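User: Fold this one for me? It's TRAF-type domain-containing protein.
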Amino acid sequence: MTLHRSATCPARLVPCVNVIHGCQAQLRFRDRHVRSAALRFASRSGHIRIGGGDDIKPPWCAEFWVWLHSKEDDVLYFMEQAIRWQECVRTTTSRLKEWQDKHKQLQETLQQGTVSHMSKPLETDALEIGEGIAGCKSILAEARARVKSLVADSLVVANTITDPSDRDEDQQHAKWLAKRQQLLQAMESRQPADPRELARFVKQAKKELSRLDDKLAKCVDVPLALVQSATHGFHTLASSATAGLHEVRFWSQNRPDVATSMHDVLGPVPELRGYWTFEEGAGEYVDDMAGQFPRYTNISSVDVHIEASSVAVNVDWVRYSTAMVQVLGDPPTASYRQRNMCKVVTKRAFLALKHHQRNGKVKCSLGCGPYCGHVIKACDQPAHDATCDLRRLRDTLAAEYYRKHELVQCPFGCGLEIARKALPKHRKSECSNRLVLCDKCGRSYVQRNTRRHDLRECDAPQVLATKLMVVRARTRQESREHPGPRHRTKSAGDVL
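Assistant: Here's what I get for TRAF-type domain-containing protein.
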């Protein structure tokens, strides 16, 4: 049972796989890879090594291992951390002994029976001593567990070192990459005055690049045609014979052909549920193929996924933190061993993780920015939503914005739908049912009845005079066009 709890139990607590990079989390062994969400290398000399191993077949199982340092450095780092925790055990043991001595003195004082007037101070001392002893024991338990885990991990890593020449090969591979990058940068930045000198330099640089490509092709399984990019330069995934990880994919069926064609760049198919790449700025997202949002690039009329290979280096570790959970939801459960685990244990671990997230301290996630400054518990976030001043101000401004842009019916009944903020202008100068003041008679009328008012209702002297002049002019015009009979008879008599 002791061996099972310390070495074989999948539910035992172990440090996060990123402990070498500064992560101090304690995870269950079966969930140790869940926190590895994205990769970010600090330099172009970084690389990824992929090993298949005896893992559970798809669906919902995809794992990878990454070494940013040599195994010898990992062993030294683990032992250094173990020594530090051992020093913590030593100092905490001395503090625990002091608290135990105080507890012994308190018991001797209580046995004397003459402390009736000192009951209150003794009660306070007893509580303080109890908390001190409990705290020291908790620290000791954690420190001893970490020491044991670090020593065991260093032993496992040390046993996997079979060929020390691997480190030399990795260093040589990094030198080739650095030299190639220097040549590319020199070709871009060099601008001599003489065009012939530039042509000679470019020719020599291309020859050197071809030699480096031949050397790199011997230790990189990714085709150079895929990793060559005019915008990103040369990138490689790994320097081992098992390279070929472009992305982590989750299938709805078993794909035995994936094991044999792991180096091929696969296109999206109906059975592909989703995939996760190492793209810069989007590596923590999981693309859902059902939503028709695949990320791919058209190269030579063939749709292939090359984002992972083109930007796989020069990235850092990004954990799937509580803030990401709030934005993106729960992460994919590829590393949960749910198929071969007790469902009760799986549910209990999931609820424990949720409880830990609810009690964790998070920043205000309402988009308030650095001006909010609130650090709250995740479970208290709904209450914080109702009290955040910036959230209230933002909601008020948003409501006022939408209220102003809301389309409403014109209150004068013209039948048009106008934005609320444009109502004053519409009522003043655009509405056909607005009341306007006649500048001649001084009476008000509806704007759409302007012609009627001018013809029938306006009684201004100048308007009446104009109307009378028009009537007289029309009468004269009609008399000229249609002369009367009396005038025609008189003309005939005069002629006779």
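One thing worth pointing out: The mean pLDDT is 62.
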